[in-house]
Design a protein that fits this description.
Length: 79
């Protein structure tokens, strides 16, 4: 079973790769390094927040792909 430390390390490296990609694309779009850094910093802060809110929204409001407890109990009681 993977250790929590591994998951944390993967999460950090994934965010760093994503932010570096954003900075590079911003530079390729012609913005100066200062602006590219500011865009990268904003992205580094905002994307985890947006992801968290997205997860909470799905958890609370979207039931797609989940079986309700009635269906689970019904199939469990048949055995």
């Amino acid at each position: 079973m993977p250790l929590i430390k591994r998951h944390i390390a993967k999460s950090i490296t994934y965010r760093l790769i994503g932010t570096a990609t954003t900075i590079i694309l911003t530079l390729l779009a012609g913005l100066p390094l200062k602006w590219a850094g500011m865009v990268g910093a904003a992205e580094l802060i905002l994307k985890p927040i947006i992801y968290f809110l997205h997860e909470r929204f799905w958890y609370k409001w979207i039931k797609y792909g989940l079986k309700n407890s009635y269906e689970k109990n019904k199939t469990t009681n048949r055995r």
